[in-house]
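Order emerges. As here.
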Amino acid sequence: MSNFNDQILAIRKNPKTWLITGVAGFIGSNLLEFLLKNGQKVVGLDNFSTGYKKNIELAINDARLFSNTHETPLGEFNFIEGDIRDLETCQKSTEKVEIVLHQAALGSVPRSINDPITTNEVNISGFLNMLQASRNSNVERFVYAASSSTYGDHKELPKIEDRIGNPLSPYAVTKYVNELYAQVFTRHYSIDTIGLRYFNVFGKRQDPNGAYAAVIPKWISSIMQNEETFINGDGSTSRDFCYIDNAIQINILAALSKNIESLNQIYNVAVGHQNSLNDLHKMISKELITYDKNLKVIPPVYRDFRAGDVKHSLADISKARRLLSYCPTHIFSEGLKETISYYFRENNIR
């Protein structure tokens, strides 16, 4: 963590100008909060297709409270409402920006199977627009959200960055194309890029509602409200769940790294440990009962395995440790406790 802390101290003394695309989303709003707490100048871009204005408001309020409590300068924030599918909007958002944290995308494997056209437009055309705008604006570093879905049908565990299989969904295709475009822009236009393959990131402000909600907030919400929960398959499906603070750390490390070898690379963002869906359900239920002793947990309902999903996922994070000094601060159980505490504290689940 010493390298991370040193980087933070450096940018507090000499603030940078950052662009966060998808700033109203789960990961984007957490990045916003972190950067404002550390006195940075932030531009945010979002069209609110999947993000929420309240996420921005909560991030700013939490950062302001932190700043007042710790007597530290609060960063500056400028919001642009717009769509990454519009090149002019992308160009406007990158003006005078030093670092881009590109989080904007249409997530969800099932969504991409139901609507591959829109997923392609946002995740590929939008990504290309952001790369081109960043190139035109001479952005110093372009850090982007890649995905563990890129590993596709490659069965080897743990997942190592340079060994991938065939994609299993349109979403996976788009995220792999992002990596290819980043490589090409580095080769031809000398823009430094770093791709972060997220493995099931979770934490505060993650939306529990809707058809494409992630499993952790959705189950927390359902169990709290004594609703049925559903497991696709027999529950042995496993994931390397990664708490949001770990994802924030590696975004900042990637953005500020001075290690030449670390640039223009792809990294796994995870903790290097897997939990099955059956285990996840038990852990959430057990933790929720500590908040409500009278809670009656309804056993999960099992249904068919979901098309396009990978059966097992486990990351090798040694490359990120070696080149970026990435060091996860939260193992899964710690992150889960923090997340459940947040939803109770903020009454954020309806």
User: Anything to note?
Assistant: The domain at 2-202+241-272+307-330 is CATH 3.40.50.720 (Rossmann fold). DSSP finds twelve helices and 13 strands in the chain. The longest helix spans residues 116-136.
